[in-house]
Design brief:
The chain is of the alpha/beta class. The protein has 2 domains: about 230 residues, Crotonobetainyl-coa:carnitine coa-transferase, domain 1 (Rossmann fold, 3-Layer(aba) Sandwich); about 80 residues, formyl-coa transferase, domain 3, CATH 3.30.1540. Helices cover about 40% and strands about 15% of the residues. Strands 5-2-1-6-7-8 form a 6-stranded parallel sheet, with helices on both faces. A 3-stranded antiparallel sheet has the order 9-10-11, with helices on one face. Strands 3-4 form a two-stranded antiparallel ribbon. β3 and β4 form a beta hairpin. α1 crosses α8, α8 crosses α9 and α10 packs across α13. The radius of gyration is 25 Å and the shape is elongated.
């Protein structure tokens, strides 16, 4: 299928058919598009549900804009023979086929792995589910908060026996990052073997695996388990200063001694409760109480200055507006602005990873629903005509 889309980036030779919706799939394929992959978003006539979220302007939601840049949109009616035939033609020229319907739905639509692979044998077939392809929860509807609850994440964030939801879509976004990495691994393996693969990933598995390096420390040593996460019972929120809030985190012995020096509490330097990392982890409530009381005695800037002098990790608590003006974020040129043809001026974060040997792609805004349908279908007809000559 011919295209006039000039792309660069390390993934520029790959084409991805994206049948996903919401966040976990679209954000994952956006990561790949940001690195040069050609991503064709296949939608119904009503489009991805996130197109209709709020806030929005001129019929385009911010949520959709921020998970679907650098993609092309084609509208296909997969209940019709013409729509199915068009998708089959796209599959024949694709490297990756990704979907996040509930288990069994894509098979009922006629695009099982077996059928897709009969069209393109070496394709990477990707299935994202909420709970898994099979099992007692396979047919349940799922959204990010459901996984936060089931994975133990809400329990770990809570205090006083009250679970708390994280105010960001952690399971959705980490599933997206996990699937993007897995797709790259499958494509790399195909370069060696010449064979395709089926990548299967659930939001539940991605989140529980993500929890293990810290929240599940007390479940690691079999026979010595404890029923609560390491952090339960410890208020790890920011410390209040005289004019704001500050986060201070000490891990190494040098950092603890640096805090002691900055606070002027010399009696803590030889306190056996805090001598080593293991000691401090056993006495976190006492340590945090001491730190909280000390930090309350000064302003945010006073503490930042003292802590930086002693090389103690610290940061002010930025509001959403503050981070747009933060000097390091500004220096990194992380936040960019773009003139969207429909929505007007928008703001987003550039791709976090930069490649020394690959220039950044010419970023394009999230597409209008069906914006590229005629272009893509015309190209398919042209390819078909060429084949029949």
């Amino acid at each position: 299928m011919a295209t006039t889309d000039k792309r660069s980036g390390p993934l520029q030779k790959y084409r991805i058919l994206d049948l996903t919706a919401m966040i976990s799939g679209p954000y994952g394929t956006q990561l790949l598009a940001d690195q040069g992959a050609e991503v064709i978003k296949v939608e119904t006539e009503t489009g991805d549900l996130m197109r209709h979220a709020a806030p929005a302007r001129h019929g385009m939601s911010a949520a959709f804009l921020l998970s679907n840049r650098n993609k092309r949109s084609v509208v296909l009616n997969l209940k019709s023979q013409s729509g199915k035939k068009a998708l089959e033609s796209l599959i024949a020229q694709a490297d990756v086929f990704i979907q996040n319907f509930r288990p069994g739905a894509i098979e009922r639509m006629g695009f099982s792995e077996a059928h897709v692979r009969s069209i393109r044998a070496d394709i990477i077939y990707v299935s994202i589910s909420g709970f898994g392809e099979s099992g007692p929860y396979q047919h349940k509807r799922v959204y990010d908060p459901i996984i936060q609850a089931l994975s133990g994440l809400m329990h770990a964030q809570g205090s006083g026996g009250t679970p708390r939801m994280m105010h960001t879509l952690v399971p959705d976004k980490l599933t997206a990052m996990t699937v993007a990495q897995a797709i790259c691994a499958a494509l790399l393996a195909r370069e060696t073997t010449g064979e395709g693969d089926h990548v299967s990933l659930s939001m539940l598995d991605a989140t529980v695996a993500w929890n293990f390096p810290d929240l599940m420390l007390n479940q690691c040593l079999i026979g010595d388990e404890k029923s609560e996460p390491v952090t339960t019972g410890v208020d790890m929120t920011a410390f209040a200063t005289q004019d704001g809030h500050l986060v201070v985190f000490v891990a190494s012995d040098d950092e603890w001694q640096g805090f002691v020096a900055a606070s002027g509490k010399s009696e803590l330097a030889h306190d056996l409760r805090f001598k080593t990392l293991a000691d401090r982890m056993q006495h976190l409530p006492e340590m945090y109480e001491i730190m909280r009381d000390a930090v309350a005695s000064g302003t945010t800037q006073e503490w930042l200055t003292k802590l930086d002098e002693h090389q103690v990790p610290c940061a002010p608590v930025n509001t959403i507006e503050d981070l747009l003006r933060d000097p390091q974020i500004t220096y990194n040129q992380l936040i960019e602005e773009y003139e969207h043809p429909t929505v007007g001026r928008i703001r987003y974060a550039r791709p976090a990873a930069r490649f020394a040997r690959h220039s950044a792609i010419d970023r394009k805004p999230a597409p209008i629903l069906g914006e590229h349908t005629e272009e893509i279908i015309s190209a398919l007809r042209g390819d078909s005509t060429e084949e029949n000559k």
